[in-house]
Design a protein that fits this description.
Elements lengths: L2 H20 L6 H8 L3 H8 L2 H24 L6 H17 L6 H9 L5 H26 L9 H21 L5 H16 L11
Length: 204
């Protein structure tokens, strides 16, 4: 990358680390200048506004989320194996963020009652991931792993709920064993919606 691009990438990396601790609303040109050791004008020159800085952080977080959670799961077979991999990777990501916080979750709290480009960028990222989970459920139905009678939106909703519960209990309440309960919850979701076509023959 050109020097300017490298500098901007370094600023975004620092901004992402800062946002994970104090939230997107805590980001400012001044705070970032202090963290990076740059001048305010130097940071401002790369973004032009605090809003553009926030959007850049959201995009960077989404890119990293995809590379760590989504793309590795695509290496698994369609159906439940892929859905399982997506959930497992998501669990790892969430567990790693227990101390720092999740931009998707903290951002939703900060911007749930607002309008504007920052909220739109955040909502777009979350929606695209939810669509990927729903598509994985649909593929599991197509492969005969999950019953076609269930609404894919319902399954995706329940899976997302496990992650939100894990983050709340592990990060806020410090409840031990929350990750194990989330994994058990996912197993039960699969069992509840499993297709009879995918069941092994009963022993006589």
């Amino acid at each position: 990358m050109l020097k300017g691009q490298q500098t901007k990438a370094a600023i975004i990396d620092a901004a992402l680390g800062l946002a994970s601790q104090i939230g997107l609303e805590g980001l400012s040109i001044g705070a970032l200048a202090e963290v990076t050791g740059m001048s305010k004008s130097g940071v401002f020159a790369h973004f032009g506004s605090r809003e553009e800085l926030q959007i850049s952080v959201i995009r960077e977080y989404h890119d990293r989320f995809e590379s760590e959670v989504f793309y590795p799961a695509m290496q698994h077979a369609r159906g439940v194996p892929r859905l399982q991999a997506m959930f497992d990777n998501w669990m790892v990501q969430t567990s790693n963020e227990i101390d720092s916080g999740c931009i998707y979750i903290s951002g939703a709290v900060e911007f749930d009652d607002r309008t504007g480009p920052v909220r739109d960028a955040l909502a777009s990222s979350v929606t695209s991931w939810q669509a990927a989970v729903r598509r994985a459920v649909e593929q599991a139905q197509e492969e005969g792993h999950l019953t076609r009678e269930v609404d894919p939106l319902q399954v995706a909703f329940e899976v997302h709920g496990l992650i939100l519960a894990l983050h709340y209990e592990a990060r806020f309440l410090k409840v031990p064993g929350a990750a194990d309960r989330a994994r058990q919850g996912f197993v039960r979701i699969l069992e509840r919606y499993r297709s009879t076509l995918d069941l092994p023959p009963r022993k006589r």
